[in-house]
């Protein structure tokens, strides 16, 4: 029997219904063989008793008896096939986690090479063979192995999902197109696949572009950190140098103060020592004379006393010490003078620091020109947008939302919403002015109070030569000299607005801890009382002038 089985082909041991080796094979009257369960299930589903192969009809359902001969032959073939599969399984890959297993393997499951969309099963190399050799199976659609093949079937019609509804963006079967998706835009699965793949390609390109932008942003941030570190190291080095110099200056002033006091004390001590030495010398001479007088007064020799008295009467010269004093030195003002000198030194050092700071902020110079659409009708702007003055005639201008209608103000065309910027304004000859920055959303109609709460960060000069930082209440500023040119510096992220006297290289005032959330505009104002001055007299008041930074020094 073994030799005979070797002469039989694989097809002779396969059930044409399940396409697998016979299990309990039975023969029907027409002579064809099937698995008992397969032919029984086939006849259960069909009204007519018919051979699935030759289509011969039977008047009544035949009695099925297992063909023991074919059953034994099939069992031997199955055993032989299993042995061959077992021997070849070492050459094939055993399925690993995450891989698709072969659905036909029993025992050790091998890695599937293909999945069949008709059989809805996945096969390894051995069990894929019938799909590659048998004519009926070659027509089946094979794809790369995938799991959950049941998900490729329409749950409503139990048909293959081979179409794509673009209207509902779902995969459908043929029967769906004549029911739920009858009027929808339906295309073959391949066309839908290619369309979505193109979209994915575009999405991937967009994602890669976003990744690249973020990489560039990371590089920008890293560069900012490097620049910040360089700036921090530079500031630390400069700060250490400055404070070391200040410390040395203080220590030097302290040493000089101590030396001055000690020198005065030494001179006092030397003077006292000289007087004391001189007094002690006179005391010694006087004691010697006192001894001679005492000795002579004890003499009983009348002649000797009279003869010696004349020479004794000539007393040695002595100093009149009545008005002689050792006066302690006066130390009043010594410390004050030393501190004053130190203050002058510190002031000079501070001026140098401010000069350096001013040079640094001037590097952030920006172009600023006045916006005529925001200017109050009384204001006169130069053609280049760099000067503003007040006229005595109110111009007939459109009352657009951007224009100030009560405050004699004008904004710049340029706005800033990040980083740092700096500009300079000449205020020489202008008796009243207001300078600074303002946020975009400020109220421009009616009377305006310029405070940080209302969106203004400004300083001003009143006609009584009073400088103020505009706040609630105003902050009076004490300046050593009247600024001829004012520098305005803004660090948006830091929330800082600083004003400088450019010529004196002095800090006028700083608004700190500001919270900027919108665009900032440079702001310029000439108080309303200048209009009255123009109408009352023919005086000439100079304009506010936006000037370029002088980098020559």
How does this model look, in words?
The protein is α+β, with helices and mostly antiparallel strands. It contains 9 helices and 23 strands. Strand 11 and strand 12 (387-390) form a beta hairpin. Helix 6 packs antiparallel against helix 7 (302-313) and helix 6 packs antiparallel against helix 8. The protein is elongated and about 200 Å long.
Keywords:
Jelly Rolls, 7-stranded antiparallel sheet, 3 domains
What is this structure's SSE topology?
Layout: H1 2-7, E1 25-27, E2 33-35, H2 36-45, E3 49-50, E4 57-58, H3 68-89, E5 114-116, E6 121-123, H4 125-133, H5 135-138, E7 142-143, E8 163-165, E9 170-172, E10 186-188, H6 189-297, H7 302-313, H8 334-362, E11 379-381, E12 387-390, E13 409-411, E14 420-426, E15 433-439, E16 456-461, E17 467-469, E18 475-477, E19 485-491, E20 496-501, E21 506-511, E22 520-525, H9 529-536, E23 544-547
Antiparallel strand pairs: 1-2, 3-4, 5-6, 5-7, 8-9, 8-10, 11-12, 12-23, 13-22, 14-19, 14-23, 15-16, 15-22, 16-17, 17-18, 19-20, 20-21
Helix pairs in contact: 6-7, 6-8
Summarize the structure.
The protein folds into 3 domains: 91 residues, 2-Layer Sandwich (Herpes Virus-1), CATH 3.30.40.10; 148 residues, no CATH class; 169 residues, SPRY domain (Jelly Rolls, Sandwich). It has 553 residues and is α+β, with helices and mostly antiparallel strands.
Q: What is the CATH-assigned architecture of the largest domain?
A: Sandwich
Strand residue percentage: 15-25%
CATH topology of the largest domain: Jelly Rolls
Percent of residues in helices comes to: 25-40%
Span from first to last CA? 113 Å
Please give the count of helices.
Answer: 9
Q: What spatial order of strands do you see in the largest sheet? A: 11-12-23-14-19-20-21
Main beta sheet, described?
A: 7 strands, antiparallel
CATH H-level homologous superfamily name of the largest domain: SPRY domain
Query: Under the CATH scheme, which class of the largest domain?
Result: Mainly Beta
Q: What is the subunit organization of this protein? A: single chain
Count of extended strands: 23
Q: What's the overall average pLDDT, rounded?
A: 87
Radius of gyration (Å): 56 Å
């Amino acid at each position: 029997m073994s030799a005979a089985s070797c002469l039989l082909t694989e097809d002779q041991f396969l059930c044409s219904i399940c396409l697998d080796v016979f299990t309990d094979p039975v023969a029907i009257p027409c002579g064809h063989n099937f698995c008992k369960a397969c032919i029984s299930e086939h006849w259960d589903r069909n009204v007519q008793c018919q051979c699935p192969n030759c289509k011969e009809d039977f008047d009544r359902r035949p009695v099925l008896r297992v063909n023991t001969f074919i059953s034994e032959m099939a069992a031997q073939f199955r055993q032989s096939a299993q042995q061959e599969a077992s021997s070849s399984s070492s050459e094939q890959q055993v399925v690993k986690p995450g891989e698709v297993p072969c659905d036909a393997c029993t025992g050790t499951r091998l890695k599937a090479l293909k999945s069949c969309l008709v059989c809805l099963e996945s096969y390894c190399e051995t069990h894929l063979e019938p799909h590659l050799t048998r004519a009926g199976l070659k027509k089946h659609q094979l794809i790369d192995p995938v799991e959950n093949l049941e998900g490729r079937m329409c749950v409503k019609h139990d048909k293959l999902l081979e179409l794509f509804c673009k209207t509902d963006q779902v995969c459908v079967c043929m029967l769906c197109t004549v029911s739920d998706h009858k009027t929808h835009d339906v295309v073959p699965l391949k066309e839908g696949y290619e369309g979505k793949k193109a979209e994915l390609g575009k999405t991937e390109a967009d994602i890669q572009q976003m990744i690249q932008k973020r990489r560039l942003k990371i590089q920008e941030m890293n560069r900012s950190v490097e620049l910040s570190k360089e700036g921090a190291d530079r500031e630390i080095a400069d700060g250490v140098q400055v404070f070391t110099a200040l410390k040395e200056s203080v220590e030097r002033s302290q040493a000089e103060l101590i030396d001055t006091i000690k020198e005065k004390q030494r001179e006092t001590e030397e003077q006292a020592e000289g007087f004391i030495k001189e007094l002690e010398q006179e005391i010694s001479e006087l004691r010697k004379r006192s001894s001679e007088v005492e000795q002579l007064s004890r003499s009983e020799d009348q002649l000797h006393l009279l003869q010696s008295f004349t020479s004794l009467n000539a007393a040695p010269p002595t100093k009149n010490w009545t008005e002689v004093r050792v006066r302690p030195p006066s130390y009043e003002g010594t410390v004050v003078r030393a501190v004053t000198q130190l203050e002058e030194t510190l002031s000079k050092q501070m001026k140098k620091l401010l000069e350096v700071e001013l040079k640094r902020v001037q590097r952030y110079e920006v172009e600023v020109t006045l916006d005529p659409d925001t200017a109050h009708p009384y204001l006169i702007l130069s053609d280049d947008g760099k000067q503003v003055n007040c006229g005595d005639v109110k111009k007939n201008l459109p009352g657009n939302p951007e224009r100030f209608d009560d405050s004699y103000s004008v904004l710049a065309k340029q706005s800033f919403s990040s980083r740092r910027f700096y500009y300079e304004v000449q205020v020489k000859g202008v008796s009243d002015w207001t300078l600074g920055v303002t946020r975009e959303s400020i109220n421009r109609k009616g009377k305006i109070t310029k405070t940080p709460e209302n969106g203004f960060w400004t300083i001003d000069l009143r006609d009584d030569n009073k400088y103020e930082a505009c706040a609630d209440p105003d902050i009076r500023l004490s300046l050593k000299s009247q600024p001829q040119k004012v520098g305005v510096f803004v660090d948006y992220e830091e929330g800082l607005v600083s004003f400088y006297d450019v010529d004196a290289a002095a800090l006028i005032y700083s608004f700190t801890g500001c919270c900027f959330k919108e665009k900032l505009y440079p702001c310029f104002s000439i108080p309303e009382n200048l209009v009255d001055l123009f109408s009352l007299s023919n005086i000439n008041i100079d304009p506010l002038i936006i000037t370029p930074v002088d980098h020559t020094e």
